[in-house]
Amino acid sequence: xxxxxxxxxxxxxxxxxxxxxxxxxxxxxxxxxxxxxxxxxxxxxxxxxxxxxxxxxxxxxxxxxxxxxxxxxxxxxxxxxxxxxxxxxxxxxxxxxxxxxxxxxxxxxxxxxxxxxxxxxxxxxxxxxxxxxxxxxxxxxxxxxxxxxxxxxxxxxxxxxxxxxxxxxxxxxxxxxxxxxxxxxxxxxxxxxxxxxxxxxxxxxxxxxxxxxxxxxxxxxxxxxxxxxxxxxxxxxxxxxxxxxxxxxxxxxxxxxxxxxxxxxxxxxxxxxxxxxxxxxxxxxxxxx
Length: 289
Ligand code: PXG
Prior knowledge:
The chain folds into 2 domains: about 1-115, 2-Layer Sandwich (D-amino Acid Aminotransferase, Chain A, domain 1), CATH 3.30.470; about 125-280, D-amino Acid Aminotransferase, Chain A, domain 2 (Alpha-Beta Barrel). About 30% of the residues lie in helices and about 25% in strands. The chain has helices at about 20-25, 45-55, 65-80, 125-130, 155-165, 210-220, 235, 270-285; strands spanning about 1-5, 10, 30-35, 40, 85-90, 110-115, 130-135, 170-175, 180-185, 190-195, 195-200, 225-230, 240-245, 250-255, 260, 285-289. Strands 7, 8, 9, 10, 11, 12, 13, 14 and 15 form a 9-stranded mixed beta sheet that branches. It has a 7-stranded antiparallel beta sheet with strand order 2-1-6-5-3-4-16. The chain is globular. The mean pLDDT is about 95. 3-[O-phosphonopyridoxyl]--amino-benzoic acid binds near residues 120, 187, 188 and 211.
């Protein structure tokens, strides 16, 4: 495997950055997870735009223009000769000293691109559906660290993940500070009620997922009514179907939440049909390499 760091490729074993990098010391940086299917990078422009937006918000200057970064991603995929891939794009504040002061990192931003394979959940869970739980750790408050910023600081999500694992589940529902359903640790959440789709609005402590947007677009094209609306746990419990979306997870059905069976307790019809449409989309849409 070849890893891209600041314009050069390194073997996996030699792909190293400074211990003074503020990405390591403070989680000071931003990232994206992107997928390529059959030599097509899915929603590459959307991921790149979100990365620059996250960086802009934390006043981190990405030392490459967007077009150059797109080229670097494509080059990394070619270098690794991967037909299907999961691409991790990381931009850190770079090397500084042992203080918080970002001025010490001026002009040192580190750009890392890793292309690999990924299987987030075992294949059988896509057929059988996930069991998830609501966890005590609430999602970061937008007024503290806005979940719209895809920052390297994922401790909030990792704590929730640990709580889910401790409860014997693979994934967690995180609530916002008002107690509404926000999202899962690395996925957005949807429910289906009477053949209509509901997902929390992006302003409520939720990342504006690119898979979420793709699903909303697919639903609208197929004349399924969609509501970006606050959701309570009760509404999840009494929903007909539930599923999660994310670049890594893709679309995964949820069949049990906090011990309550969702709908029939099996992956729902609309979930499976949207999943099929999503897979077709990933086969035909994207930036070719
Ligand atoms: N919410 C959060 C908090 C995320 O981190 C999503 C939703 C889905 O967004 P996209 O754009 O991918 O549809 C994400 C992104 C993992 C992992 O290993 C997951 C993400 C990022 C990094 C790692 O589960 N998901």
